[in-house]
Amino acid sequence: MLINISSNQIWLSTKWQTRRTYGQIQHQFPQLLSDIIKRYPTDEVYIINWPGSFTNIRIGTLVINLLKWLNPKIQLYQLSKPIFFKHLSKNFNLPTKIYLFIGQKKKTWLYDLQNGTYQIINYEEISIEEQTAFDQTFEFSPYIPEEKMINLQFLQDGELFFDRNRKYFQWEIIKSFPWQKISMLTPNYMIAPNIS
Predict the structure, then answer these.
(1) Domain boundaries, the chain
(2) For the chain, percent of residues with pLDDT exceeding 90
(3) Of 26, 59, 138, 163, which cross-links 134 as Cys (Cβ 3.0–4.6 Å)?
(4) 193 has which bridge partners?
């Protein structure tokens, strides 16, 4: 199972289906994860963690850790979104730059996948260039061409895909990325939360 808690919605993908949360994440994600685990038991969970929405990272971390506590046999693996897309680009010939959702209402990262650097960009400054892609958070933007979106979902045969262009990503290659095996998930925030 692949879970992206670094988006504006939490995405869960198994070899049989892809689902995402809408709206009240604190109510939807626990139920969604529970339903999927009951229907498609798994012993490995791969998490894309950081950067993203504070709430999604917080709720996603809490629910995934509860799942691990209830089922200690589940193995957890994490990878940051920039590193995930860097390896996706290297293995599957994607554009060299990608706009990444970072959990802010007016700003995004323009991440250079070749040299690992980023610029903070205001949404109104986004430019659509030939060698630029967008993570799935931009899916509902009327200004971004659909063919520029990287929308990761599993197909029935267990491959991930970038569905607008029907570009296929083999799950076995994605599993070979430098995932960090962890005993519990730690929330990875860009900015320390203000809990006062």
Answers:
(1) 2-80+155-161+170-182, 82-150
(2) 21
(3) 138
(4) none
pTM of the predicted protein model: 0.85
- Please state which CATH class domain 2-80+155-161+170-182 belongs to: alpha beta
**In this structure, which amino acid lies at residue 137?**
T
Between CA 9 and CA 6 the distance in angstroms is 8
Q: How far is CA 176 from the centre of its chain?
A: 17
- The whole-angstrom separation of Cα 180 and Cα 187 is 14
Amino acid, single-letter form, for residue 183: S
**pLDDT of 167 above 60:** no
Q: Which two tokens stand for residue 62?
A: 């809490």
152-79-42-63 Cα dihedral, nearest 10 degrees:
-100
Across the chain, the runs of DSSP E, i.e. the strands, are: 2-4, 11-13, 18-20, 44-48, 75-79, 97-101, 107-112, 117-122, 132-135, 149-150, 152-154, 159-162, 167-170, 180-182
